């Protein structure tokens, strides 16, 4: 199994190379050179133990270059972050509607599954080469917390996390900034998530940093991160007992939704994919109106989805265009230069065959939190509410599984505003209060970001 880039890089690269690179040399994102055909019964594996399913999928996508022991360790860590009382955490809310709870890991967010996996695989890859690695990542809240928890204390990895100052929830911030580890640097940027993401992508291509050693990212631009999210689509589908259930994915950077696409691509029992976004709806506008426009992100209740330039949209464009590297490169170079680009009618139609999208307002988010409590006795977070709201609008179009991406206690103010009471607080969150925080604040400036990372890696 080899990997290529969305903008023309043909490599080849093994999984280990793609994992440690993060971005492809062409400036695009890594994807499999060819999507593999399972040499095992995929549906039977999806119904079996989650760690076994994950192990089979990792081997299918070429992770076995890191050795059988590394694959099994990664699979078991992912399983530990996923299951609820040893079972797939799927709850049926009503006829043809399920909720997949993806927040049973150490930081109570769906990012834990993939991050726990990628940490184990990264350590294995570096042990093979004897090298050290600097990881830089942008976060709208949950990715950073999950990365800090997964990589803190690593002897081969230095982790730099950029988050938008004042634009993550207090709990998300504390989960990042209270972890004491010499190999972790938390940087708050005076900007939004898209600003942080642009900083990271520029740092990944900076020659002065490359000269100091390996540098990569654990955002969902990294194929390894995305791969860790494929198994739960298959497991949830099997647990539902439905034939080709549709999935509704609350999304910001579009990585989670594309993981579902990859699961369907290899033959998984996955129906239609629908991306639900908040008022930062560049993705929805691109798919529905054919205009991809970069706007300043505005703060919403579902802060982890406050993204106006979702990186993984590039993977969708690449696949929907018939894997046209030239077309993908031109599309995103135009977007980078002008801040907007039009999808041709043909490309827009091709994208919509793969995934649809809708925008959920703040009022709808609050109303859905209320509906979930009154109707199902479930307290859900605002991100989950965005997905459930979109799923309810699709009633009558077959079975749907909505993804619950975070514990409601991570966003207590909005949830309490909707329900009139505070969500129960798990011990993992309660013990953060009063802990010492360590954070470096910088302006939204590429030179300042480079200076901070250079000093940290000296």
What can you tell me about this protein's structure?
There is one protein chain. By secondary structure, the protein is of the alpha/beta class. It has two domains: 90-108 and 229-419, Rossmann fold (3-Layer(aba) Sandwich); 111-220 and 425-458, 3-Layer(aba) Sandwich (Rossmann fold), CATH 3.40.50.1100. The protein is built from 21 helices and 15 strands. It has helices at 15-21, 42-46, 50-60, 68-80, 111-129, 142-151, 170-177, 193-204, 207-210, 223-227, 230-240, 255-265, 282-289, 313-320, 325-338, 345-354, 362-376, 382-393, 412-419, 427-430, 446-456; strands at 3-5, 30-32, 90-94, 97-101, 133-138, 157-164, 184-190, 214-216, 246-250, 273-277, 291-293, 340-342, 356-359, 400-404, 440-443. The strands form four sheets. A six-stranded mixed beta sheet has the order 3-4-14-9-10-13, with helices on both faces. It has a five-stranded parallel beta sheet with strand order 8-5-6-7-15, sandwiched between helices. Helix 3 crosses helix 4 (68-80). The longest helix has 19 residues, at 111-129. The protein is globular. The two termini are 36 Å apart. The model has no long low-confidence stretch (mean pLDDT 96).
